[in-house]
Amino acid sequence: MRVLSTSNLEQMRKRIIKYVIERQTSDGGYFFACVPPGSLLDTYYAIKTLNMLETKPPNIELTEDFVNSFQSDYQSGNIHALFLATEVLSALGKSVATFYKFGKSALERFNVSQFENYGNLDIDVTSELKPVYESVVVFTNLKIDFQKTQILKLVLALFNKDGGFGRNRNSTLSTTFYALKILFLLNSLTGTQESVAEFLAAKRQNLFFIEEFYYWLGSCFIIGKNLPESVKEEMAHLIWGYQRVSGGFARSRAIGIATLEYTYYAVSMLKVLGQI
Fold first, then answer.
1. How far apart are CA 23 and CA 85, in angstroms?
2. How many Cα atoms are found within 13 Å in the side-chain-facing hemisphere of 7?
3. pLDDT tens profile 225-269
4. Cα 4–chain centre separation
């Protein structure tokens, strides 16, 4: 398998940076279609990607204003919006202190039992634990005490015999990934790594979409699973195959357009694999 040279890797890196920067909209946000208004979610993916690439984003103050423009969402205690905002501002090196009051307001509405009824999840939510993970990140970032013991019980209740996590005893890569991230943040990973490693080993040959690779590799990284160099090279080769001429990455290798979301997944993995 051909390994990319240092010069080729640098060219690929520059293409990614160019792709991301060109997706900034006139309002300071980012949107994969390059037209305003910007998307707070795409702005998260863009800024986090540039941060991993150690590249300073353009028009930082304008992006900060864009993030601060979603006041109604923050005031309503929208955890998803608070997650995106605090993560973007932190990546830009900005203070999130002004969001403390919004976080406290969100905590007043926060009840772990609301997550136990997974039937209320939006259809586009990738995992039943993603909203829980975002809640944990928000309260942690804002240094707000929250129901850690109850969340831990909720997560561990989804731990299955095959070593993965998922409701109705159906383990999925996405829920396993978010479960591990939550357990890591709560300093409670101990006791799960060996079983999770077996689950991941069984899933390795069934990866197709780029997010599946992202959940798989991210889970390996969290549990400290050391991958052989041959596996790392093979995976890096596969990931580069998702890149499009624009410099961004698509969901599948054969078809599909590049988006900021899939580019974020790709760069996250290439960073772990030491390719960027």
1. 18
2. 0
3. 999 999 999 999 999 999 999 999 999 998 999 999 999 999 999
4. 26
Mean pLDDT of the chain: 93
pTM value surpassing 0.85: yes
Give the DSSP letter of residue 208: -
Concatenating the DSSP letter of every residue in 210-247 gives HHHHHHHHHHHHHTTPPPPHHHHHHHHHHHHTTB-TTS
Encoding tokens for residue 220? 């390996």
Angle at 20 between CA 15 and CA 21, to 5 degrees: 100
> What pLDDT, in 10s, does the model give residues 32-75?
999 999 999 999 999 999 999 999 999 999 999 999 999 999 99
Q: Are residues 27 and 36 in contact, defined by beta-carbon separation less than 8 angstroms?
A: yes
Q: What is the pLDDT of residues 97-134, one digit of tens each?
A: 999 999 999 998 888 877 766 555 444 568 999 999 99
> 119: which DSSP letter?
G
**Contact yes or no for 55/17 (Cβ under 8 A):** yes
Cβ-contact 176, 215 below 8 angstroms: yes
Place of tokens 């991941």: 200
Q: How far apart are the first and last CA of the chain?
A: 18
Q: Specify the DSSP class assigned to residue 275.
A: -
Q: Are 204 and 182 in contact (CB under 8 A)?
A: no
Neighbours of 97 (CB within 10 A): 10
Q: How confident is the model at residue 3 (pLDDT cuts 50, 70, 90)?
A: low
Looking at residue 167, what DSSP letter applies? Answer: G
* Angstrom distance (rounded) from CA 68 to CA 65: 5
Alpha-carbon Rg for the chain in angstroms: 19
User: What's residue 109's pLDDT?
Assistant: 86
Amino acid at residue number 135? S
